[in-house]
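Re-run with default settings, no changes from the original entry. Doing this only to confirm the output is reproducible before filing.
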Amino acid sequence: MVANDGPFDAASLPDDAVELGRFHGPYGVKGWIHVQAYSPDAEVLFKAKEWFLMPPSTQGRPAAAKNKPAVAPAIAGPSRVQVQGIKSHSDGIVVHLQGLDDRTQAESLKGVRIFVSRAAFPAAPDGEFYWVDLIGLQVVNREGVDLGQVHDLMPTGPHSVLVLRFPVESDSGHGEGERMIPFVDAYIDEVDTAGKRIVADWQPDY
């Protein structure tokens, strides 16, 4: 655990932490900051009063960017912070964190990643699921044929699409294929999160 300077408490990331977004930049002069949520449904960010923070990821950045120092970095390691205020703004979200009271502090959080413990998520309505609970589930059809494992969910407007990965054998060796199934009642018979399985009305050659 690394100590942090500023209004944040150094704290280990919970084992069930889910990354939900990152800070994008300051909003105004009183410490409010824009949040870039990874999901268009950001209910969890609004409901959770305690967030966990991690430094910006350097994965995929050019070497020059990796070595460029941040502006007065606020987060040196895993941290815990209390949400003092949060609201929708334009097409995004702005938040005020406890102890964050000026624009300079807010600027220092740019790129910092936001996590919430899965245990803090509000209960999903009947028939609805959090995407994090679907990732990794095995999908089979009504005949028991294995269609693949859920790798991602892709929003397409009115509904989401399950993106599956499955092994493929070829003359060149082992590979991986991709299959997409609309996540709608017309094609999804059963979602068993405890059993790690989804049953779909779908054929391998669709």
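The radius of gyration is 20 Å. Helices lie at 43-47, 63-67, 103-107, 131-134.
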